[in-house]
Amino acid sequence: xxxxxxxxxxxxxxxxxxxxxxxxxxxxxxxxxxxxxxxxxxxxxxxxxxxxxxxxxxxxxxxxxxxxxxxxxxxxxxxxxxxxxxxxxxxxxxxxxxxxxxxxxxxxxxxxxxxxxxxxxxxxxxxxxxxxxxxxxxxxxxxxxxxxxxxxxxxxxxxxxxxxxxxxxxxxxxxxxxxxxxxxxxxxxxxxxxxxxxxxxxxxxxxxxxxxxxxxxxxxxxxxxxxxxxxxxxxxxxxxxxxxxxxxxxxxxxxxxxxxxxxxxxxxxxxxxxxxxxxxxxxxxxxxxxxxxxxxxxxxxxxxxxxxxxxxxxxxxxxxxxxxxxxxxxxxxxxxxxxxxxxxxxxxxxxxxxxxxxxxxxxxxxxxxxxxxxxxxxxxxxxxxxxxxxxxxxxxxxxxxxxxxxxxxxxxxxxxxxxxxxxxxxxxxxxxxxxxxxxxxxxxxxxxxxxxxxxxxxxxxxxxxxxxx
Length: 469
Known about the structure:
Layout (H helix, E strand, L loop, with lengths): L11 H5 L26 H12 L7 H6 L3 H26 L9 H8 L4 H38 L13 H16 L8 H23 L20 H10 L7 H7 L5 H30 L7 H4 L5 H17 L1 H15 L4 E3 L9 E3 H4 L5 H21 L4 H28 L7 H30 L1 H5 L2
Antiparallel strand pairs: 1-2
């Protein structure tokens, strides 16, 4: 029997089995089934999940990014980065329609374009999401002791100290893992919509802090440095990628497409436009008011710049911890789905009732739901190994910088551009301008990839020179 990986055939029974966002009938056009599964997620929950995926710890660095170039360039580069990210998501939503019904994924689209490279695409996404999930755990470990100390002093007495165990970041990530593991075990992104609403509240609270503290500075706030409309500094080289990667959410675009009820292109455009637009607005407000408050003296973490002398700021720090905590499952879910595709490679099965030995189906990909055992095993492996790394490592900045440079650029720009260019190249119904624009997006991604990777390598060999900037 000859294996034809990617040329997947299926029966009507297979097509109606299950209801998971990551079922995959990968390959050619299967005959439509009598009963096709449909999505049940609303536009609101889809927007909240995609926005939650976008907004992470990167927003805390936007005031520093604006300080490295000035107000006007900072505003422009933020809008530009968001616009490019939205275009990549738009191309992915168009590509998702070429995949089998409600079974779209990077892997499924790659099977229609570059089937031999599909497994490498999933591997890149899995590594990127796993690396980001570890960074979230490390941020929780570093923030929780200060949050506890601030709340303890505000709610009790400034002269008393909290118990020693409560000031250990390792203890806190151990405790919080009991919350994260159940959240990370959900099969659907829509199941996380309530957690996403909590995250969005945290974002609104952070916006309230930067605006309030600009108009009514707290006692003990550091004096502001110089403020410029246009003023590029060497730090712009390192802060521009922060804006580029701050809009990364492509890993969850396909699950949202699969789950959205009546996922027409118009409704998908609403989800993408609202999510990116909201992120741009939030980033601009945080960057502008944070920069105006501290000027050139602003640090890499805006929430850490405010003195913890009031319950207002202490709650804000806790809100950031909540934001990171509930963003964690949105990285585990695509990581698990990609690993599922990787481990399914091989083992073709003959199509039932077929007399042709060459007609085969990858049975694992034709099954709609990941088995409970495999789902549990992959979830345990991702969360367990990530916890061990975060428990013993305090600084993954350089490692995660490379992960972001390679993984985020690949899934946000290079893959959306290349996949849509290939899938629409010979389609007369697709505008040639759009096809060329997709290729240009991939080229832009390659430039960012090379530039940022080169700068990271430069930082390794010239740490003192870079830190002096």
